[in-house]
Design a protein that fits this description.
heterodimer, A: alpha/beta, Rossmann fold, 2 domains, 7-stranded mixed beta sheet, 5-stranded mixed beta sheet, 34% helix, B: 335 residues, two-stranded antiparallel sheet, 11 helices, binds thiamine diphosphate, binds magnesium ion, DH_E1 (chain B), thiamine pyrophosphate (chain B), PDH_E1_Alpha_Subunit (chain B), oxidoreductase (chain B)
Chain lengths: 337, 335
């Protein structure tokens, strides 16, 4: 089995689906001839032709809306928004159309659309290239929201997203594209090749939506997280010696409530972690779910570790980014009582 | 509607024709941007600047020609390829460079970075990282000018790639409907990141993009600072005269990568080199100054030497200046 980076794994998923299903189309800004800013679509236009993989003009509102129309008419578009920070012009169409067409048409029409977009910090992107907008999508009924944390899952989840008959927001943690970054920005990142999740089958396989994975088994405290923060949480557990169980949610909506309950009931303690700003973040939903389902098992208040409630600053990347130190503090707080 | 191409030298509110001093200033202003950008590129290479950094090298004539045609009080708003625009408005190279290095002395206290700087003093309204977003904002600035009857004109710059955003056309319609004093300057440098004009634009003549809204447009050689100045002067007079918005398409070229990590696979080295050799705005204009006996080669060298000093000082300042205090993280989120 070849070792793949997350970029290669995503590329492979698109390649497999373009070959398998003639209704699959891949398009977006700079993704065809140029191969994409992060090279996720490199070589696809050459291999599958310009009618299947093509450049769009800059105009997120229009390109996403056109994809929704294509989807409602039986195609299976996969669009790239170059950075999640540029998705807002398309938000109206995502919320008011993509997410609602099935309900509004009483099931007669649906939109099998996948929107791929790199998100998150750690690349010195500053205010307009670092945001984590997942909660803006999990709050919208009629959408699925997926975030992989390694190459194997990235490919399997992307295939599931494309095959899914409903609109899926597929957020790619860009800091993980080339290696399992654990928040230690001053150390070199181990390449994916040294990680077992880089063993990615070349052909078709699916990782189901709506199923979490245990990224690290443990008994002292549960960490509910996703994306880059999975690796930060593992590092924090190793460095503090706290036997944390790290649950990688993989799909945020619909969230795997069974996996959450199983782990929290076992450990009795819970930390919720994400890069996105704290207030009204997806972590708030997780806290609510945990207290609804696990209240009598909890031995301490749930702790949240998240980005600060500010825009993503240019100069303070590593103060802003909730790295292993902040996570370690969260773990300790969760064990205090 | 009066025809913008026949505006003659006009009244008190008109930009004067250039003289030998202003022409030398054009040269100086363009070279300042060039040297500043070269230095920013070096600092980036040394790891002193992080993240995104879009250099303006090759396009200097556009912003310098336009800026020199403005009257005091006119406003400028642009996208993320903004260092040249800021220097042209008179912002301090030290403060700009210190923002690039993320220092407290930067124009946005280090929190904005290369793409996000502002200066009320020089009427520079940013520095916007979201492609196209500045265009309706500029339209709003122009609305305020009209409402306040202050006689000012807004320049809303955008790239030719940005010109495909829907909000640009909403802007054209509003600006014409409400007769706003705004000039939309499309800097057509032929590429939007890795995508050439032909691959993204059904109508590649951007000056025609206002036709259906009755917004007149003119195509300009954006590598010729005098041509830009002349076109700017006429357009400003037209717009300031209450005739509504205009579009200027500047045909220009970007020499460097889109940002600093550009694999440059979408065009050939020869293409870039041939533009540099034939059309470089600074070389061309320097030769003209010498040919017309407005400056000697030696004069030009002196200008360059002075600029290098200024730019080196800015770089030293930006390297030495302290980083912002972490307590600054929470300031300016809300009032
Ligand atoms: C809304 C939005 N979409 C996409 C991007 C990514 N992006 C940044 S610059 C750019 C190309 C813009 O090209 P152009 O307008 O021609 O300006 P130039 O870079 O040539 O100066 C793209 C696609 C962005 N910043 N914002
Ligand atoms: Mg361009």
């Amino acid at each position: 089995m070849p070792a793949m980076t997350m970029i290669q794994a995503l590329n492979s998923a698109l390649d497999v689906m373009l070959a398998k299903d003639p209704d699959v189309l891949v398009f977006g800004e700079d993704i065809g001839y140029f191969g994409g800013v992060f090279r996720v679509t490199e070589g696809l236009q050459k291999k599958h032709g310009q009618t299947r993989c093509f450049d769009s003009p800059i105009g997120e509102a229009g390109l996403v809306a056109a994809a929704i129309g294509m989807g409602a008419y039986g195609l299976r578009p996969v669009v790239e928004i170059q950075f999640a920070d540029y998705i807002y012009p398309a938000y109206d169409q995502i919320v008011s159309e993509a997410a609602r067409i099935r309900y509004r048409s009483a099931g007669e029409f649906h939109v099998p659309l996948t929107i791929r977009t790199p998100y998150g910090g750690g690349i010195y992107g500053g205010q307009t290239h670092s945001q984590s907008p997942e909660a803006l999508f999990t709050h919208v009924t009629g959408l699925k929201t997926v975030i992989p944390s390694n190459p194997y899952d990235a490919k399997g989840l992307l295939i599931s997203a494309i095959e899914d008959d409903d609109p899926v927001i597929f957020l790619e943690p860009k800091r993980l594209y080339n290696g399992p970054f654990d928040g230690h920005h001053d150390k070199a990142v181990t390449p994916w090749a040294k990680h077992k999740a880089s063993e990615v089958p070349e052909g078709h396989y699916a990782v189901p939506l709506g199923k979490a994975a245990t990224a690290r088994a443990g008994s002292a405290v549960t960490v509910l997280t996703y994306g880059t923060m999975v690796h930060v949480a593992i590092a924090a557990a190793e460095e503090t010696g706290i036997d944390a169980e790290v649950v990688d949610l993989r799909t945020l909506m619909p969230v795997d409530i069974d996996a959450i309950v199983r782990s929290v009931q076992k450990t009795g303690r819970c930390v919720v972690a994400h890069e996105a700003t704290l207030t009204s973040g997806f972590g708030a939903e997780l806290c609510a779910l945990v207290q609804e389902h696990c209240f009598w098992h909890l031995e301490a208040p749930i702790q949240r570790v998240a980005g600060w409630d500010t825009p993503y600053p240019h100069a303070f990347e590593w103060d802003y980014f909730p790295g292993p130190k902040r996570l370690a503090d969260g773990l300790k707080r969760a064990l205090e009582n | 509607m009066s025809d913008p191409s026949v505006v003659e030298d006009g009244g008190v509110n008109a930009t004067p024709a250039p003289n030998s001093t202003t022409l030398k200033k054009f040269y100086h202003d363009m070279l300042l941007i060039r040297r500043f950008e070269e230095k920013a590129g070096q600092l980036y290479g040394m790891g002193l600047i992080g993240g995104f950094c879009h250099l303006y090298i090759g396009q200097e004539a556009v912003v310098v020609g336009m800026q020199n045609a403005l009257l005091p009080g006119d406003q400028i708003i642009t996208a993320y390829r903004d260092h040249g625009h800021m220097l042209a408005t008179g912002m301090d190279p030290k403060g700009v460079m210190a923002e690039l290095t993320g220092r407290a002395a930067g124009y946005s206290k280090g929190k904005g970075g290369s793409m996000h700087m502002f200066s009320a003093e020089t009427h520079f309204y940013g520095g916007h990282g979201i492609v196209g977003a500045q265009v309706p904002l500029g339209t709003g600035l122009a609305f305020a000018n009209k409402y306040k009857e202050n006689g000012a004109v807004t320049l809303a710059y955008m790239g030719e790639g940005a010109a495909n955003q829907g909000q640009v056309y909403e802007s054209f319609n509003m600006a014409k409907l409400w007769n706003l004093p705004v000039i939309y300057v499309v800097e057509n440098n032929r590429y939007a990141m890795g995508t050439s004009v032909e691959r993204a634009s059904a109508q590649p003549d951007f000056y025609k993009r206002g036709e259906s809204f009755n917004v007149p447009g003119v195509s300009v050689d954006g590598m010729d600072v005098e041509a830009v100045f002349e076109a700017g002067r006429k357009a400003l007079e037209f717009v300031r005269g209450g005739n509504g918005p205009m579009i200027l398409e500047m045909k220009t070229y970007r020499y460097r990568g889109h940002s600093m990590s550009d694999p440059a696979k979408y065009r050939t080295r020869d293409e870039v080199q041939s533009v540099r050799d034939r059309k470089d705005p600074i070389d061309q204009f320097g030769k003209k100054l010498v040919d017309r006996n407005l400056a000697s080669e030696a004069d030009l060298k002196v200008i360059d030497k002075e600029i290098r000093l200024v730019v080196n000082e800015a770089a030293e300042f930006a390297i030495e200046a302290p980083e912002p205090d972490a307590s600054e993280l929470y300031t300016d989120v809300l009032a």
